[in-house]
Amino acid sequence: MEKLIACVQKRPSALCRLICFPWAGGGTSQLARWGKLFNDSIEVFCIRLPGRESRLEEPFAKDMTSVVNEVTSVLLKELKEKPFAFFAHSIGTYTSVAVALHLKEKYGLEPVHLFMSAAHAPNVSYRIILADVKSIALPDEHNEFLACMEMVGGNYKLPHNEEIRRNIAVTSREDIRLFQTFSFEKAERNIFSCDITYFCGSDDKTYDVQGWRELTSGDTSFYEFPGDHFYLLKPSNESLLIKHITRCIEDAGL
């Protein structure tokens, strides 16, 4: 499990596990550290996909199905063991939804809460724009990455280190290709019964957040934080996010 999951603070007596799915090109460092910031009621797992960090030598995942199968097979015991919730940011949102759909359909398991951040609901047409990313003709990988980030609403500056810039660009491109293999039937409504909370930055592009209402029979709520696509990297926003997520999970009556 250590290959797939980053868990910096084990809490075997936690009431709930929060499974985090990073953004395109992202690793586990930022979200995994949340494990030390939550209280003892929540244990944080962060998903580490192939092709990065300790899995750098592995080939990137070729399609969403392979990712879903790996996540569910590795975590199934833990997901059956105690309640769990998902947090996902940007393109990582679609991976989390794909996993949640599979768990619901095959195992009858459902998160107690879905926390979605800076992404359109998968049942709205705007997401089709990203399907054409591969057709962009740009002179280098860095510009391709920045163009992709602009499409999803990101205002992002690449680091100055050339090797880091290249790795982020390559990984982001592969993550977007992974997204392109995610199939979602728009006709599907009220798939889930859990509550959904959607977060975004005030300076980010406008998302069709209402689409999230169609995915669940539970309650949906929307919160805006000051900042751009990566609003959650601001310490003040991070603190408020963690407090809100904690309150939602603890109020679920687990």
TrEMBL record:
The organism is Aegithalos caudatus (Long-tailed tit)
Concerning Pfam families, the annotation shows: Thioesterase
Q: Which residues form the Thioesterase domain?
A: 17-246
Offer one example of a GO biological process linked to this entry: medium-chain fatty acid biosynthetic process
Q: Which Gene3D superfamilies match?
A: alpha/beta hydrolase
State the superkingdom: Eukaryota
List the catalysed reactions: (9Z)-octadecenoyl-[ACP] + H2O = (9Z)-octadecenoate + holo-[ACP] + H(+)
Q: Is this entry keyworded Lipid metabolism?
A: yes
Q: What keywords sit in the KW lines?
A: Fatty acid biosynthesis, Fatty acid metabolism, Hydrolase, Lipid biosynthesis, Lipid metabolism
What is the protein name for this chain? S-acyl fatty acid synthase thioesterase, medium chain
